[in-house]
Amino acid sequence: MKIDAVTIFPDYFAPLQLSLLGKASDAGIVNFQIHDLRSFASNNHHAVDDTPYGGGAGMVMLPEIWGLALDPLLENDTDLIILTPAGKRFDQKMAAKFSQSTHLVFACGRYEGIDDRVRQHYQREQYASRNIRVHEVSIGDYVLGGGEVASLVMIEAITRLIPGVLGNPDSLSEESHNEDGYLEYPNFTKPAIWRDIAVPEILLSGNHGEIAKWRANEAAKRAEKNL
Ligand code: 6GU
User: Fold this and answer.
1) How many domains in the chain?
2) 62 C-alpha to center of ligand 1: Å?
3) Crossing angle of helices 19-26/148-159, nearest 10°?
4) Which of 49, 106, 157, 200 could disulfide-pair with 5, CB 3.0 to 4.6 Å?
5) What confidence tens digit (pLDDT) does each residue in 6-22 have?
6) Quick check: pTM over 0.85?
7) Does residue 111 line the site of ligand 1, with CB under 6 A?
8) Cβ of 143 less than 6 Å from ligand 1
9) pLDDT tens by residue, 27-52
10) Domain coverage including residue 161
11) CATH number for the domain including 40?
């Protein structure tokens, strides 16, 4: 999978070199490329934004610069993801869908956003016919300063679903039972007693049927608490 991100803060993406993502990148399973939006700004002060038409607070990112940055990245069969708090809520189902994609492009706007004509333009038939799909995505009901951290969250959730990225693929099949929002059961390891707190007896019993039932019940209790 190829992943491009366009941002005015390329340094935000340094964590991509760490842990599982770094290994996946070294192994050539995912290919990250980060692009500095400002390098496409040819105006006097390398400005990337301007005041909104109609007035109001904040600045809006210039469509011209986004067009220059995105045009060369949008090859056939690409998912263009525009990060905005007004977008569709990212969840495990969306992560699973994007993990099947061959090319993701993350457009990281500051929170006041990118001129809406950028979305409108890339949603035109000329792009749709080349299998370029545009998605406006949010990671939750709160406002971040920009789309960079949201992109990292999405990249981590998506890439760990690609075969070969996760060390132990069994963790994926166990999770998939939980895709509809079922939270996992509590886990324990050695020692059997820690600071006077004992591991639940059933887990030491070796009775796999009863253990599975207990875990399903605990997961259900957790899910209920979080409603
Ligand atoms: Cl994608 N962007 C911003 N700026 N804030 C957010 C978000 C995205 N998702 C949740 N909050």
Assistant:
1) 2
2) 19
3) 70
4) 106
5) 999 999 999 999 989 99
6) yes
7) yes
8) yes
9) 999 999 999 999 999 988 999 999 99
10) 1-167
11) 3.40.1280.10
